[in-house]
Amino acid sequence: MPQHVAKSQLTRWAAVLFLTVLLSPGCAHTTTVTAWSPAEIELTDVKTIAVLDLSGNDGGSATQILAAGLRSDEHYNVVDRQEIQPVQWTTAHSGRNSLLTLDDLNAAHESNVDAVVTGDVLESSCFDRPIDEQDSADSGDRPPHELLTNGTTVHREARVTIDIRLIDVKTSDVRLARQISRSYSAEVVLGQSGTQTHREVLDDLTRKCVDEFTRLLSPQEHQQKIALAEPSLFDRGYSLVWNGNQFACRGCWEEAIVSWEQAIAKNPDHDAALYNLAIAHAHRQDFARAEQLAIKAVNLRHKPQYEAGLNRIRKQMSDYDVTVQQRCDLGFRD
Q1: pLDDT score of 100
Q2: What's CA 111's distance to the chain center, in Å?
Q3: What is the per-residue pLDDT across 65-79, written as a single tens digit (0 to 9) for each?
Q4: 286 and 230 belong to one structural domain
C-alpha cells in the first residue's frame, strides 16, 4: 500500500475517532444553584417558641433534636423548656389528642412565649436481618442484634414517625400540625469502620423529620442541582460554552459567565449559552435578566429542558419575592 494512501486512511480514522469522542453523550454537566423556599404558614406574630417534651418511645432524644433544630433557625427565639417548668404536655389519660390546660397556657404566656411545639414519637425502630434470611417469612425468627457478630452483612431497616404540633399560646389554636416520617434501608457490615449504630441512624432520621418541620415554619435557603445545556459540536462557540459548563460545575460562576458571554458575542443565537447564562443570573437572584435569556433560548430552540428551566426560574422568582417579604415581616434585613 502506497505510503500516502496509508497516511490518508490514518487521517480519516483519526478524524472519525475525534468526532466520536466529542459527539458521545458522556457525563452531563450539572451545577448547584442557590434558591429560597418560603415558609408554608405566616407566623409574623410568633417570635419566641418553647419546645415541650415529646411523648412516646425515644421522646426524650427527639425533644432534644427538635429543640436544637429550631434553635439553629435564625428566625425565632427558642427558650429552654426548663424556663417555663409549669408548662407540661399531659398525655396520661387522653393519649396524644390531649390539650394544654389553661394554666399551662397562662404560664407560657407569662414567660413571654408566643407558641409551644410538642408532639408524639409514633414510631422509632431499627433492626438488622442477616442477608441470607431476607426471604424468611417469619420476621420473629431473626436473631437479636446483640447476637449478630462483627463482620456479618445485614440488611438494616429503620423508620421514625413524629407527629409535631405548634400551638399558639394566646389562642390555644394549633397553628401547624404535621405527621412526618423518614425511613432508612441499606446493607451494612456490622463492626465495619463508618457503619452507624442504631442510635445514630434513628437520630439522623429524627433530624430529617425536624428539618422538614422547620422548613414549614420559616423561609429557607437551599441548594438545587441543575442540568446545564450541552453545546452542539457544530455551533460556533462550542468550546466556549463547554468551558463555561466546566467552570459552573466547579462553582466558578464568574469564569463561567465570561465564557458563555464570549460564546454569545461570537454567536448571538447560541441557545445553550443563553440558557446556561439564564441559570447563572437566577443563581444571583437577577431573575428579570434570567427570564429574558431563558425566553430567548426557548424561542431559538424549543426544547423541554429550556421550557422546564424557564418555569423553574419563574418559580424561583416568585418564591424569592415571598421569602424576602416574610423575612422583612420577621424583622430581617436582606
Answers
A1: 55
A2: 35
A3: 999 988 887 778 888
A4: yes
The dihedral region occupied by 56, where left means phi > 0, alpha psi between -120 and 50, and beta the remainder, is left
Q: Are residues 195 and 261 in the same domain?
A: no
The two counts, helices (H) then strands (E), for the chain are 9, 7
Q: Is 200 helix (H, G, I), strand (E, B) or coil?
A: helix
CATH of the domain at 200: 3.40.50.800
Q: Which of 206, 198, 249 lies closest to 227, judged by CA?
A: 249
Query: 298 near 307, Cβ under 8 Å?
Result: yes
Considering the domain architecture, whether residues 198 and 234 belong to the same structural domain is answered as no
Say whether both 119 and 232 belong to one domain.
no
- The 10s digit of each residue's pLDDT in 45-62 is 888 888 888 999 899 999
Lowest mean pLDDT among 46-60, 103-117, 187-201: 103-117
Confidence of residue 317 (pLDDT cuts 50, 70, 90): very high
Name the more confident of 74 and 89. Answer: 74
pTM of the predicted model, to two decimals?
0.63
Query: What does the alpha-carbon distance between residue 326 and residue 76 come to, in Å, rounded to a whole number?
Result: 13
* In contact, 120 and 54? CB cutoff 8 Å: yes
Listed in sequence order, the residues at least 6 apart from 266 whose beta carbon sits closer than 8 Å to its beta carbon are: 236, 237, 240
Is the residue at 92 inside a domain? yes
Copy the grid coordinates of residue 30. 450539572
The total of structural domains in the chain comes to 2
Which structural domain, as residue segments, surrounds residue 275? 224-329
